[in-house]
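TODO from last week: model GNAT family N-acetyltransferase.
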Amino acid sequence: MPEISDGVVTLRSTNETGQFAVAADGQPVGRVRLVDAGDAVAELSWQINETYRRRGHATRAVRLLVGHALASGYVRVEAYVDAGNLAALRVASRSGMRREGVIRSRRTLDGARHDFVLVARLADDPEPSTRAGFIGLVNSTLPRTRLIAHVVVRDEHGRLLLCETTYKADWELPGGVVEPFESPRDGATREATEELGIDLPIGPLLAVDWLPPWNGWDDAVELLFDGGVHDGATFLDRLELEPREIKQVEFCTLDVVKERCLPGTYKRLAAVLGAPYGEVLYLERGAAVESL
């Protein structure tokens, strides 16, 4: 590779295959390495001497080498970055490399197993300085909170429809996790149709509830939609339950909800039933924020 420079940082090939010395203002400041992984994929790594860190040298060096590699015919340049190395993750992002996932317990460092983040840039990715490139980078780093949409169905006595599922002990409302790029309302409609076997009319939003991390799950936002008031016996006769997910359904009083559901579910539904009709609640852990 010829010597390449952006006017501040210069990369010069060394005797070691794929490794380049990084110089700034004529001084050696670190090294970068590019290894051919086959099938037009290259793996990148870098190291800046501690004295010269936090001056932008790493970002400039990585950006130079990534750009040169892609211009030379590589389709993909990737790197594995220690998940705890926030500075290196920022370097990757500023160089246009998007986060693609976490490789759990990938390598032993200082006697302990570490998770690594896989980052990569493709030849056809927009430049990070462009609007499309910026959006792509930010999308790859933003937190991903699960979105859950449930439907509150009531009978003429004010009882709530609960489902006993095949995969957990506690009972739950019809509905479930919203799929990527699906609206919450569409997700509620789809899940209710799949579980109950009917086209359930979905009414207005009743409540938004934030759920903290729990029992191995990350945090989530749950939306409750109004599923209307129905004649209980007639409604149950219309159902065609999905047997792989739903054992049975039943209209339940709030006391029964408390017995069969998780405490957070009970608090959430009690808040909804106690709210004036038409009021949309904002809850956290099932409780109104002002009462926390």
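Done. The domain at 4-141 is CATH 3.40.630.30 (Aminopeptidase).
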